[in-house]
Amino acid sequence: MTFRYGLIQCHSMAARAFTILIFMLPHGLLAKDKPERAGADKQQNTELRQSELPDPSFSPRGSFRGPLEITHIARFDNLPRRMFLEPHLISPGSVRTLGLSFVSLFDQTLRGINDAELQETAALSLARVAREKLQDISGSSDILLQHLESHSNLRVRFACARALVNADWQQSGAALLNMDEYADDSQRLWIDPALARWKVLAAADIWRQRLEFDTETTVAVSLACDGLAALGDAQALELLTSVLNDNLLAYDKRMAAAKAICVLAPDMALTQADLFTGGSVPERILEIELLSSSKPVAHARLFSLCGDVSDGVAAAAWTTLFRLNPDALLPAVATGGNHRDAFIRMTAARMMRLFPDAERAGWLHEQLSDKHLEVRNVAREMLSLVAEEQPALRDGIMALTGDTLTANSENWQGIEQSLLLLGQLRAAQFSDRCVPLLQHPRNEVLVTSAWLLHLFPDQAVEEAVRKHLLRNEEMFKNADLPRAGADIGEQSSYLIQCAGLMRLKDMQKFLEPNFSKFEPGGVHKRAAAMWALGLLHEHDPAPDLTASLLARLADRVPPPGIPPEHAEVRRMSAVALGLMHATTAVPGLLEAYKIDSSDTVIPDSARWSLGMVGEPLLDSLKPVLLHVGGWRLSPFGD
Hints:
Strand order of the largest sheet: 1-2-6
Largest sheet: 3 strands, mixed
CATH architecture of the domain at 456-622: Alpha Horseshoe
CATH superfamily of the domain at 456-622: Leucine-rich Repeat Variant
Helix content: 55-70%
Radius of gyration: 32 Å
Shape: flat
Number of helices: 34
Oligomer: single chain
């Protein structure tokens, strides 16, 4: 294939590096070029969850029974909301694309243009294509390998090497090894792992040589140790031992040697570990690395180090032994749960999940009040798993957790985690205990308690829901009150959803002011009002309400000086029209389906609502195509 290209001439190589390069492909090829997805993106797209389909009998009410995805570090302002889960509509996502002509251009530049700078750029571009899995570059492997082996310019050779490594082209192993003598640390960081992964045995000779010289960098020696361990090179043990025991070497070099010795010769590692017993903190951590094998005697020694006076040493021993043999930690679980080091407390929490009983469930419950944010979140996750995996312990866990809601209000950490856990356990019987918490001084509690109420609406507390919604509204009107702000808005958003789920029709007048963009309380509060109004008028498309919702849905380009409506408010307006079965809203819903951006979920919401009002089901939304840009070499017309 012949390529035509144009290059703006410059007076120096430095200037030419910044020149805009425009390459012109034959017209016939450009006419049939189509963006192609990367293989990984194709796979991701096929696994993408689909939005819920419209069902005329759909009617959110009562306790929520669907899946709840709570982040590892749960925060009160980022909890799952029923208005976004019922119906469960999702963005189709995006797919990164690259025109086929790009790879062809890069390939032909390598094959047909005798300019080192352009060839380097083309090779680095192919490296990026392979790294980002945009397309298959195996068709260029031959020319990349040819330049790697014989090109006169080192920069071109390294660029070709990078492309072949990113493409995992194992046939280039021998040529890649020859580049070691020219490589610096930044290049060895990707060359050495590839050689180890491809099992290039000849690399062991170069790596052993590195261990012989004190002048080699820490990065070079560490990579050599890792590579020798990956190749199973027992010939290197003597050199590795000399590195390990050289007190004058950088500590990271010694640590890498200890790791390699433990992999290659566990018995020798045990013997070497004896040399560091009772030494300094760094030496005891070296000892732990040398004991990181499957040997029972090594595990016994690791267990003794779990009680080390140094928190760093003890934590390293705990995490290492937990990875290798959790059973060996059982005798220390009780003390580990109260250890002053957070990593040890988290490891103990994970141990309690692996070996659960009533007593350990109680210990886990105590950790819900831990001062460390991640420890208490891990404890909650472990308790949730124990309750799911051990039905006999479930009732006891829920009883302890429910009791926390009436405990000392200063224990806000434990109360917040208890509320989250009860939501995960689908515990619908604690609404009465949530009501007093709606006035808690901490946002984490006052919002999360409203969240739990909205998951399990209880008619017994409907008056409390009304009272707190009205109270919050008064606080917004009196901005000098200390609790007015985004936290109260978040609480109101959940209470509004709760009111809608309980069909508190007398709250309509309270909800209608949220049609105004300037209503205080935040976006979530206003979006919740749209959803709740749809529930209050389920199968009842009141003309005035329909018109107000359509106005919010259509507010894309407002008059100058006024911002457009928030996407979440527009999205919930579309859903509300579907809940109401508002047939007169069809034109507005069709418009939203056709012109709004799919990442806002507004088109999918409109599609769902059109189905709810009896319209034929429209095509599902396609992922947004994101054309990858920023290439220094670019085909003409792309």
